[in-house]
Amino acid sequence: MTFDCQLPLTAIISRMLTNTIGCLDKARAHAQQHDIEETDLLNARLSADMLPMQQQIEIVTTAVRGTLTRLLAAGPDCAEDPDYAVFNRGVGARFRPPASRFAELISDVTSVRDWLTTLSDSHSTAPPDTITVQMHGQARIFSRPDFIVHYFLPNFYFHLSMAYGILRHYGVALGKQDYEGMPVYQTTLIPS
């Protein structure tokens, strides 16, 4: 069974980035209220072999830039640029220097969210039929729909969920609505 629905990708991303800004702001307030060094939360992880919270967020922001740049065939050639990485860093990954304040992370997420408003579907270059992501000397080649549905979205939500989970684990008072945002549905009473 298939459903023909157009995914408003930039709206989905923008909404989740806005929600992430709210979560990060609550984490900053939590650190201040409980006299916790911000770097302790920024570098927190659920397991020793996972990336810290701030790198989970960096992966999200660079993936958004890299994904939309590739999908729209707009911007720089970003195959090897870490600012446009699409979940393809791998072991020994290149990341920015660690943030020391939540304000830095919030600023990065905000700038990516604001960048989304500058994008347009109308470009002089036709978007490619396939999307290529390079990693470890290999090229992963996706159809556009497979890239969005089976690669970008699952990884996007995974890394956002990891950051949320890390903050919850370390006591930040976040709930499901902080992650999801305001409901997009209407409610009515069902007559009895």
Task: Explain this structure.
The chain contains six helices and two strands, in the order H-H-H-H-E-E-H-H. Helix 1 (9-33) packs antiparallel against helix 4 (102-116) and helix 3 (53-72) packs antiparallel against helix 5 (144-169). The chain has a two-stranded antiparallel sheet with strand order 1-2. It has helices spanning 9-33, 38-42, 53-72, 102-116, 144-169, 176-180; strands at 130-135, 138-143.
Short description:
This is DUF1993 domain-containing protein. The chain has a single domain (9-120, 127-180), classed as dinb family like domain (Four Helix Bundle (Hemerythrin (Met), subunit A)).
CATH class category label: Mainly Alpha
Largest sheet: 2 strands, antiparallel
Q: Strand fraction band?
A: 5-15%
Number of continuous helical runs: 6
Instruction: Report the CATH superfamily.
Output: dinb family like domain
- Number of strand elements: 2
Read across the widest sheet, the strand sequence of neighbours is: 1-2
Quote the distance from N terminus to C terminus: 34 Å
Structural class: mainly alpha
The overall number of domains is 1
CATH fold-type name:
Four Helix Bundle (Hemerythrin (Met), subunit A)
